[in-house]
DNA sequence: GTCTATATCGCGATAGAC
DNA sequence: GTCTATCGCGATATAGAC
């Protein structure tokens, strides 16, 4: 369920949802689930409504468009990645944080795996989506770089030798983190929590 | 164009194609191109026919189904990966082969990037596709393992320390090779040949 | 082999009742 | 806010002429 990820970084106690807000959320959950299974293009708004347990028409009260649904899901993803990678002056703490963040990134990548998968097509089809994506990832890579430099400075990690850079390492880690669980799934090894833990070290 | 990949492993001189065969090939090329751009579900058979320069009806003379087209593309992919990873007794030769194969894998992954991207959805939607996929990848991983063990035995490579194994390393390399170019593309750094070379070392 | 024409279906999106 | 009904469109797949 969505809760696996949902809980990790939200405020401890959630404000009671308005009725409208709850429906909106159920639509997004349903859409995410179906997108992951079949891909965005193969999922009709009708199917989303059915999965969410509402009428087709009602869906259009909350979202003007399928694209709007995808954009809303993107916002959720961005939210999940916010405010990690603040480097600490304590080396052990940073190492723990590194592990935790890679785990978290894997979890998010899994729950929203349709997004990484269809990334290029999605970005091509929606300029607004692309704008947000580029901006966020620019920022994220910068954060990772500062964090990585700190790790190197603290002797927790060796800098990769030329011609490879810290940025390259970041990219490689990002690629692995975002696709590892999907890979397991494709090999018919269902991605369970313990398996996730086992994947990180 | 497709030739980038097409040429790499085929017999030196291609037999002259029958008219039927040529149309079939043009359909597959068109489909691959469009699938990569927009994703399989978003591409109609009409669009494929148009891109291939034939009529919608004609397409159904050559393929009974969109699924059949995808299956045919899968066969091409499998063909491109056949007969690499035969370990040699010469260490330098193996190292060169490792590089060459990673490059080649990247190239294929790029030309057929829709396939990796939509993998889970595709496998879920087509039992036959899944059967071929599992079988081929089982075999492939075995080949890589024997190759990797040879590299270790020849002192070209260190075995990763526990709890990571040679198989894990293979998976990580596979993930990177299959997604690296797509990643570059998503960052708006178009994947050119030189960039490919630069990516491998 | 290839074309044009067409039947059938399901999707996206809106209108209007409750 | 939510539903049902419906319009218009485009997609798949087939039929039949050339």
Structure report:
Two copies of one chain form a homodimer. By secondary structure, chain A is mainly alpha-helical. Chain A contains eleven helices and no strands. In chain A, helix 2 packs across helix 5. The longest helix of chain A is centred in the C-terminal third of the chain and has 27 residues. Chain A is elongated, with a radius of gyration of 18 Å. Chain A starts with a helix and ends with a helix. The mean pLDDT of chain A is 88. At the A-B interface, helix 2, helix 8, helix 9 and helix 10 of A face helix 8, helix 9 and helix 10 of B. Chain A binds a DNA duplex (18 and 18 nucleotides) through helix 2 and helix 4.
């Amino acid at each position: 369920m969505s809760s696996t990820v949902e809980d990790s970084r939200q405020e401890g106690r959630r404000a009671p949802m308005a009725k409208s807000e709850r429906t909106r959320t159920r639509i997004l959950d349903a859409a995410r689930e179906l997108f992951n299974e079949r891909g965005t293009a193969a999922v009709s708004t009708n199917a989303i409504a059915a999965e969410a347990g509402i009428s087709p028409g009602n869906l259009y009260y909350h979202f003007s468009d399928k694209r709007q649904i995808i954009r809303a899901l993107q916002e959720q993803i961005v939210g999940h990645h916010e405010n990690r990678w603040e480097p600490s002056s304590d080396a052990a703490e940073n190492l723990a944080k590194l592990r935790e963040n890679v785990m978290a990134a894997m979890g998010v990548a899994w729950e929203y795996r349709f997004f990484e998968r269809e990334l290029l097509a999605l970005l091509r089809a929606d300029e607004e989506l692309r704008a947000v994506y580029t901006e966020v990832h620019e920022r994220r890579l910068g954060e990772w770089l500062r964090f990585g430099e700190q790790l190197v400075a603290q002797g927790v990690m060796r800098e990769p030798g030329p011609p490879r850079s810290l940025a390259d390492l970041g990219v490689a880690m990002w690629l692995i983190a975002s696709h590892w669980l999907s890979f397991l799934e494709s090999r018919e090894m269902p991605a369970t929590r313990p398996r996730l833990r086992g994947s990180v070290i």
